[in-house]
Amino acid sequence: MKVGDLMTREVVTVTPDTQISEFCRLMQETGLAGVPVVDGEGRLVGIVSNRDVLANQMASTETEPVHTDIHELLGPRYVTLDENSGPRIALWIDEIMTRDPVTVTPDDPLESAADLIIRHRVHRLPVIDGPDRRVVGMISTFDFVRLAAGGEGAG
Question: Alpha-carbon distance 18 to 21, whole Å?
Answer without folding.
Answer: 8
